[in-house]
């Protein structure tokens, strides 16, 4: 059973906890054990738990809006286990993770594979199960995060890595940026029917104060401009639009990201 504000699968439910202007802390539970992803606000997590114990915290990268609640949560729930990237400048981590590692969160009977996806930050990782991906700020619906660290080659490779995962997986990014990303995408692809349809659907969801997330990876592969940079026709269009020479997917990504930064 899937709702935009409550995803249930195999006795696990995933709900967004909205914080700040547009962040989501993802809350995973089986009714007994609880996990949160990128808790940027400790009070919001405590309110969502409603007196229950917090078992796990997953951190995708070090930015403050994803980590500033961690230390307070550790104080409130001393037994909570904190997972995060091994190369992170954020050090309040119990289990330091590297690319390719697997973890088993026994209280939820949840197995996750770690994938390094640097670019937005150099320490960024994604957590991949058989059914979904917690991808932080690396990949959004119809967009990707700003390139604060790393370079275009690194970031484009990370996006390509995510795009090779099974298309049935659900993506759980940590920002509600979909409408803004659609405005940019429609500015460069005004006649794209998939984008038109998705924009209409997201507009209705947001009017009802519902999340536009999660989204299926296979849909993002067909709709998201940042996952289409290997397409020669897309590269040609982008070169004409930007009046820049584009010979490959990395150049296409760099140009596209620069356009989005100025949009």
Structure description:
The strands form three sheets. This protein has an eight-stranded mixed sheet, covered by helices on one side. The chain has a six-stranded mixed sheet with strand order 9-10-11-12-15-16. The protein has a two-stranded antiparallel sheet with strand order 13-14. Strand 2 and strand 3 (12-19) form a beta hairpin. With 263 residues, it is of the alpha+beta class. The chain is built from nine helices and 16 strands.
Could you tell me the mean pLDDT? 94
> For the CA atoms, what is the radius of gyration?
18 Å
> What class would the helix/strand composition place it in?
alpha+beta
The helix/strand series, from N terminus to C terminus, equals EEEEEHEHHEEEEEEEEHEHHEHHH
The assembly state of the depicted protein chains is single chain
DSSP strand count: 16
Task: Return residue spans where pLDDT drops below 50 for at least 5 consecutive residues.
Answer: 1-6
The description of the largest β-sheet is: 8 strands, mixed
Count, helices: 9
Strand content: 25-35%
The spatial strand order of the largest sheet comes to 1-2-3-4-5-6-7-8
- State the helical fraction: 25-40%
